[in-house]
Structure formats: C-alpha cells, structure tokens
Amino acid sequence: MDAKQFEKISRALSDPHRIEILQAFKNRKDCLQCTEVHDFIDLAQPSISHHLKQLVDADLLLPEKEGRNLKYRLNEPVLDNYIHFIQGFKTNL
Amino acid sequence: MDAKQFEKISRALSDPHRIEILQAFKNRKDCLQCTEVHDFIDLAQPSISHHLKQLVDADLLLPEKEGRNLKYRLNEPVLDNYIHFIQGFKTNL
DNA sequence: TAAAAACATCGAAATATTTAAATATATCTA
DNA sequence: TAGATATATTTAAATATTTCGATGTTTTTA
Fold it and tell me: In angstroms, what separates the C-alpha of A4 from chain B's closest C-alpha?
C-alpha cells in the first residue's frame, strides 16, 4: 500500500457515520445491505449513498449487485494492508 | 478507544504531509525535532506547526519541550489501540 | 539587554467535505 | 406495462480544512 492509498482510506475512516457503517460488520456473518444502513443511520438516502461510495472508493467495501439491491462485503485484506502501513511508523532500530 | 477518538486519529492520518511526518519516525531511534520537519516538508512554518498540532491533538505524537525546541515521540500504544479498533470491524462469527 | 531562533496564534483566502432536495436510472412486481 | 422499490447523480448551501503572511511569545546567545 502506498501513502496515497493510505491517505484515502484514512479519510474514509474519518467520519462518524462511516465508522458506524463499518462497525455494523462486527455482528454480521458476511454482507450488509444498503437498505439496512438506512435503518440504523439517520441520514437522507443520497447522503448514505455518498458515504458508501467513499468507502467503496477507498476499497474498504466491495459492492455486489443483486437485482435492484446492493450488498457490501468488508475488504479485510485491505484492512490488513492498512494496519501494516501503520506498523511501519514504528521505530525499528 | 471509542469511535470519537478513532475518528480524530483517522482524520489526523488523512493528510499527505502528516503521513510524511509520521514516516520520518521509521529511521529514527526516538525523537523528531520540529526544525527537522521543516527540513523535509516544503511548507511555511505556521503550516507545519498546524500539522504537528493535529498529530498531538490526536494523541499520535507526544511533545516534549527542551528549551526553545520541541521534540516529538511517537505514541505507539495509541497506534496499537487504533489498530485494535480496526480489527473490531472484522466479522468474528 | 538586544538580537536571533524556535515555535504558536490570528486572520483571511482557497479548497474540500458534508448534507439534502430534486431528479434520474435500474429492477422488480402486480 | 405501470407503479413501486433501491440506488445514483446533480446542484447548492453550510461547514471544515489547508495554507500562508503577519505578528506574538519564549528562550537562547552575543
């Protein structure tokens, strides 16, 4: 992961609603539906669409179209790479 | 770490100059001086002061005053807590 | 003590982000 | 096929962030 991607992911992680969306994966076997997000976040539909787009653009969520619905999977390898980048800040001498 | 602190740290990490500052710790035994930052980042002094403040406010850097100089240490425990918060996004079922 | 050095703060301009209303598109169902 | 449902896009307003010049504070040094 390069610094540019790290920056983009960090920005995606720097909003309370987007954090809430990601936390919704904690108690879930796999996917999250767009509509479900609407249930637990008090924002207008275009705003939720905007936030999900940020997360997808940062490669944190992988969208899967199912008819007129959209399901999202968490991109765990990218999370791991992000964590690895942070570990690199640490002094190793 | 709560979501609010996670958000603040993420925001602190979402700027190319601040990432560059943190990366400077990689090849360093311990501290980083304010003046040194000025050497490798092409920004006016108030801008660098602003970015360092963001990092200190996010608790990522610990400032230590030494006369008229300021030294910074990386707050590794906070980095670890931040990483732990991210791990919590992962599905654990 | 006067000047220099290191860092912070204020104020303002440029730019980016968040939000929602209005509207568009795609898909499903009756 | 008409209407309903799910999601995206456009536009605009409100707010936040980044940057720098000017200036202030503190500490060192000549």
Answer: 7
pLDDT digits (tens, 9 = 90+) for B12-58: 999 999 999 999 988 777 788 888 899 999 999 999 999 999 999 99
Contacts of A53 (CB under 8 A, 6+ apart): none
CA–C1' gap, A56 and D26, in angstroms: 48
Quick one: tokens of A4? 């540019």
| C-alpha torsion A82→A87→A88→A91, nearest 10 | 160
Can you give the pTM of this predicted structure? 0.93
Contact A44, B41 (CB under 8 A): no
- List the one residue out of B87, B84, B28 whose CA is nearest residue B61: B28
Using a CB-CB cut-off of 8 Å, the residues of chain A touching B15 are 7
In contact, B74 and A90? CB cutoff 8 Å: yes
Q: Please give the full DSSP string across A34-46, using - where no structure is assigned.
A: HHHHHHHS-S-HH
Give pLDDT tens digits for A2-42. Answer: 999 999 999 999 999 999 999 998 877 778 888 889 999 99
A28 shares contact with chain B (CB less than 8 Å): yes
Portion 62-81 of B in contact with A at CB < 8 A: 74, 76, 79
Nearest chain A CA: its distance from B90 CA (Å):
6
